[in-house]
Amino acid sequence: MAIRLFLTVCAAVAALGAVWAEKASKADRSKVEAYQPHGINVGVNLGKPAGAGVLEHVHVHLVPRWNGDTNFMPVLADTRVIVQSLDTLYGLLKERLPPERGA
After folding, report:
1. 59: which strand partners?
2. Residue 61 a catalytic site member
3. For 33-50, how does the pLDDT look when each residue is reduced to its tens digit (9 = 90+)?
4. Among 34, 53, 67, 94, which one has the highest count of C-beta atoms within 10 angstroms of its own C-beta?
């Protein structure tokens, strides 16, 4: 997919809504299979101050959540966190994702 930049979430959703839904569904299934979370938080970051690092960059993230965890996982004790390296996490999720079309 070509790199596309957006100034608003509305513009990104209008252009990429179906693509995002498809990719989010695949990512959701892989995380549920791998970690059996009780829920998934879905977030969209757009622009440098929103954490994307680049003015017109937009990305979506899915965060597995469990009953009893909190939004402050790094600072509160007795919370559930994924204690794996990023390489291990990537491998675990990648093996559960279907191949990309045209790849």
Report:
1. 45
2. no
3. 888 888 888 888 887 777
4. 34
